[in-house]
Amino acid sequence: MTQPAIWLGTSLKMYFSYAQTLTWCRAVAQIARQHPAVREGRVGLFVLPAFPALPAVKALFADTPVRVGAQNIAPAASGAWTGEVSASMVQELGGTLAEIGHAERRRYFAESDAQIAAKVALALQSRLTPVLCLGEAQQDTPDAAAEACALQLSRALAESQSLHGSLLLAYEPQWAIGAPQPAPEDHIRAVCRALRQQPLPPGIALQVIYGGSAGPGLLSRLEESVDGLFLGRFAHDPAALAQIVDEAAALLARESV
């Protein structure tokens, strides 16, 4: 399946109630139906709602190309894992992506590199696209950031060397998450360029998106150095999301000339 040239996605985290989630998704579904770049598959949209909303959200996007996934999966295929949700159940519910390794999961739930590697492998085995989040903890030079992120990527793929599938790599410097501004554009370009050059398992296809206070205007400044954006609070306003979809379509139009 041909992948979109630009991905725009968001995790709703725990910001919305169930009713608010459905209201937001209805508005985004309308954007997806109306926008030619989304309908034609040139700009891909994905949404990661809270677990209880997955079936309803999937139904709301059923007649659109918007992909739906989970904000997390368990580090085991099945068994006595109270409160967890398996990758296979996400896939069974119609999800096609799984967010893995977000800084908040590492910080608040003490997720280890070994758990993240297990989740990536389980996602791929369940035909889910991992949205693998990584990024340096403290602001540093682009070279140091790239080195730290390359190590995180290598550890995350430790159990996936013989697996096949696509991987959305979300570069999110931890110091930029929730900040007033995203990381400097030169910094983002350098780290994303380095991540694209990292060795990967032969069966894994990689696209690199940027997250960390990403909002309107950033994609145009980054241009072809990233494959899209992992949007945070800016995407909570469907009008702002529509503006970024327009921006992505305009960028692709310029690149095709």
Written overview of the protein:
With 257 residues, this protein is an alpha/beta fold. It has a single domain, classed as Aldolase class I (TIM Barrel, Alpha-Beta Barrel). 41% of the residues lie in helices and 18% in strands. It has an eight-stranded parallel beta barrel with strand order 1-2-3-4-5-6-7-8, surrounded by five helices. Strand 6, helix 8 and strand 7 form a beta-alpha-beta unit. Helix 7 runs parallel beside helix 8. The longest helix has 19 residues. The protein is globular and about 45 Å long. The protein starts with 5 loop residues before the first strand and ends with a helix.
Per-chain topology:
Elements: E1 6-11, H1 18-34, H2 36-39, E2 43-48, H3 54-60, E3 67-70, H4 87-92, E4 97-100, H5 103-109, H6 113-125, E5 129-134, H7 142-156, E6 165-171, H8 185-196, E7 204-211, H9 218-222, E8 228-231, H10 238-256
Parallel strand pairs: 1-2, 1-8, 2-3, 3-4, 4-5, 5-6, 6-7, 7-8
Pathway: Carbohydrate biosynthesis; gluconeogenesis; Carbohydrate degradation; glycolysis; D-glyceraldehyde 3-phosphate from glycerone phosphate: step 1/1
Catalytic activity: D-glyceraldehyde 3-phosphate = dihydroxyacetone phosphate
Enzyme class: isomerase
Summarize the structure.
41% of the residues lie in helices and 18% in strands.
Helix content: 40-55%
Query: Major sheet, described briefly?
Result: 8 strands, parallel, barrel
The CATH architecture: Alpha-Beta Barrel
Number of helices: 10
Number of strand segments: 8
Q: Approximately how much beta-strand content do the residues carry?
A: 15-25%
Shape: globular
- End-to-end gap: 25 Å
Sheet with the most strands: spatial strand order: 1-2-3-4-5-6-7-8
